[in-house]
Amino acid sequence: MKKLGFGLMRLPILEDKADQIDIKTLELMVDAFLDQGFNYFDTAWFYHKGQSELAIGKALVDRHPRNSYVLADKMPIALLRPGTKSPEELLQDLESYFNRQLEKTGAGYFDYYLLHSLDRKKFDVAKTYKAYEFIQKKKDQGLIKHIGFSFHDTVDVLEEMLQAYPTMDFVQLQINYLDWIHESIQSQKIYQLARSYDKKIIVMEPVKGGTLSHLPQSMTQKLQEKDPHASTASWAIRFAASLDGVFMVLSGMSNLDQLRDNMTTMKNFQPLSQEDQDFLIQEANWLKEASLIGCTECEYCLNKCPKKIPIPSYFTLYNRDHLDLGLDPKKKYQATRKNNPGPSDCIACGACEKICPQHLEIIDLLKKVDSYFE
Ligand code: SF4
Ligand code: SF4
């Protein structure tokens, strides 16, 4: 398999609505992707407010032979509520999500299936539910080919999971050159631990939700001097794909241009030299000093916010202004603010912080954004 996977969480949309996926454009993207010899697609229950699984059913599953692509989906652990349910009821919950996913995609089976976005709390829920045993059973029945989990927590929690789940075929980790030596995300340590358990690795967020495709002029210039034909995003993708044991790098692509750029990078993949890897890690230190907010624009918080605050949009605009990208984020902030509740409308209910896979202190960060722009 070629190492580039199509992440289905930032698909082209209509009328700026996350749940209105532009199926015609998606079909063109899917066809171009397959045409160039790529075949890995990654969806999840939460993506596009539940519409991603349906969309890939229409654009891929209904239109291409089942053996021409590889499809990954994920058990939405964040939705599981054990309460005082009996073992039979817990099993019923898992069965119901899994069967619904098979129905929504129409795929018949999943090539890769993950426990989604595990951290300490969701790990406990997964244990209560016996979710690991459940997906293992589905694998034995031939409804899943490879089992794994995606992960957002610290190294010690990962070690517990790797010990508790010895037969997982792979792990999906957040790895990019900005998070490589980040104190709380700890990409490097997490990667090294997974490798020490001999796990195959899928990388998510190689471009950090798009942050590493919009770099400050000075850094863009340095990268262009190294290779005038390579896009800024391509450096981030290659960084992740160059690591030993990484067999797939997911990229959430929103249009044909992004798709083509990624395919050009990965069609005849050339690993980065050690010198270039060191250069990117060194530059990441500079980026960190710009005190960026580590939001990856996954949008999980959006559905949770009772005030409907467009949290990721505000964080992205804040980051862009700090990186001096010349896109006039202040003006864009005013426009966003005019049509939406602002950062100061936050009532500190904490619902967003509970779901944020990046463990961001969203309430405090919104105050920071508010005082910066307002
Ligand atoms: S803490 Fe603020 S931003 Fe977060 S969900 Fe509650 S109101 Fe929305
Ligand atoms: S604040 Fe957290 S949950 Fe919301 S979009 Fe950013 S990373 Fe995702």
TrEMBL record:
<dbReference type="InterPro" id="IPR036812">
    <property type="entry name" value="NAD(P)_OxRdtase_dom_sf"/>
</dbReference>
<dbReference type="InterPro" id="IPR023210">
    <property type="entry name" value="NADP_OxRdtase_dom"/>
</dbReference>
<dbReference type="GO" id="GO:0051536">
    <property type="term" value="F:iron-sulfur cluster binding"/>
</dbReference>
<feature type="domain" description="4Fe-4S ferredoxin-type">
    <location>
        <begin position="337"/>
        <end position="368"/>
    </location>
</feature>
<keyword id="KW-0408">Iron</keyword>
<dbReference type="GO" id="GO:0046872">
    <property type="term" value="F:metal ion binding"/>
</dbReference>
<dbReference type="InterPro" id="IPR009051">
    <property type="entry name" value="Helical_ferredxn"/>
</dbReference>
<protein>
    <submittedName>
        <fullName>Acetyl-CoA decarbonylase/synthase complex subunit alpha</fullName>
    </submittedName>
</protein>
<dbReference type="InterPro" id="IPR017900">
    <property type="entry name" value="4Fe4S_Fe_S_CS"/>
</dbReference>
<keyword id="KW-0479">Metal-binding</keyword>
<dbReference type="Pfam" id="PF13187">
    <property type="entry name" value="Fer4_9"/>
</dbReference>
<dbReference type="InterPro" id="IPR053135">
    <property type="entry name" value="AKR2_Oxidoreductase"/>
</dbReference>
<dbReference type="Pfam" id="PF00248">
    <property type="entry name" value="Aldo_ket_red"/>
</dbReference>
<keyword id="KW-0411">Iron-sulfur</keyword>
<dbReference type="InterPro" id="IPR017896">
    <property type="entry name" value="4Fe4S_Fe-S-bd"/>
</dbReference>
